[in-house]
Amino acid sequence: xxxxxxxxxxxxxxxxxxxxxxxxxxxxxxxxxxxxxxxxxxxxxxxxxxxxxxxxxxxxxxxxxxxxxxxxxxxxxxxxxxxxxxxxxxxxxxxxxxxxxxxxxxxxxxxxxxxxxxxxxxxxxxxxxxxxxxxxxxxxxxxxxxxxxxxxxxxxxxxxxxxxxxxxxxxxxxxxxxxxxxxxxxxxxxxxxxxxxxxxxxxxxxxxxxxxxxxxxxxxxxxxxxxxxxxxxxx
Length: 235
Fold this sequence. Notes:
The protein has 235 residues and is of the alpha/beta class. The protein folds into two domains: 1-77 and 181-235, 3-Layer(aba) Sandwich (Rossmann fold), CATH 3.40.50; 79-153, no CATH class. It is built from ten helices and ten strands. It has helices at 40-47, 70-76, 93-99, 108-121, 123-127, 138-150, 168-183, 195-201, 219-224, 226-233; strands at 2-11, 14-24, 29-33, 55-60, 63-64, 78-81, 156-160, 187-192, 204-209, 212-218. The chain has a six-stranded mixed beta sheet, sandwiched between helices. Strands 2-1-4-5 form a four-stranded antiparallel beta sheet, covered by helices on one side. β1 (2-11) and β2 (14-24) form a beta hairpin. α3 (93-99) runs parallel beside α6. The longest helix has 16 residues, at 168-183. It is globular. Pfam families: ABC_tran. Keywords: Amino-acid transport, ATP-binding, Cell inner membrane, Cell membrane, Hydrolase, Membrane, Nucleotide-binding, Plasmid, Transport. Its EC number is 3.6.3.-. InterPro entries: AAA+_ATPase (IPR003593), ABC_transporter-like_ATP-bd (IPR003439), ABC_transporter-like_CS (IPR017871), BCAA_Transport_ATP-bd_LivF (IPR052156), P-loop_NTPase (IPR027417). This is Branched-chain amino acid ABC transporter, ATP-binding component.
């Protein structure tokens, strides 16, 4: 479903991605592991049409992504939930959520149905639907960000560091929700520094360092790898 073939991306003279190749099949949950600055976010920004690549090919469901507008990519079913949540803090929770359904704005009944599904997944957001998004806790704001992405009705979801800055209990809940979304049929590409939690729900993973993929494999292989454990898990 998702295929990157020898993708490169530069910011001025800095080469953020260097001949990156990876894939995620339909229904898979694939994790990108790496430290800050490794290139994980750059992959997502390229795939979502925010940054133009300097070489290679990116395909979603057989369709070339390069040159497509971000709105066209969302309409195709590939949706990006960015690092840092990127909410509108003064707007209500519900308005933040419904912004995610902009590409489906003519389907009012469908938007209402999807909103009900998001509230069922995150009951606390229904309780706070009229509150400013900026007044919520960090974990609740992450729920809004994920819910907003789900309002776009993704067939494939790019999740960038959803556990960043969250308490351990909230991280556990967030990963349970991500696994639930994947089991319902949505392909997930998950960028994470929390390797242990991410590998616990993944089918496969790639390890990225300095814009290069240095290792790939299924979750059991990477969890048992001594180098991966020392670098990303501990022990």
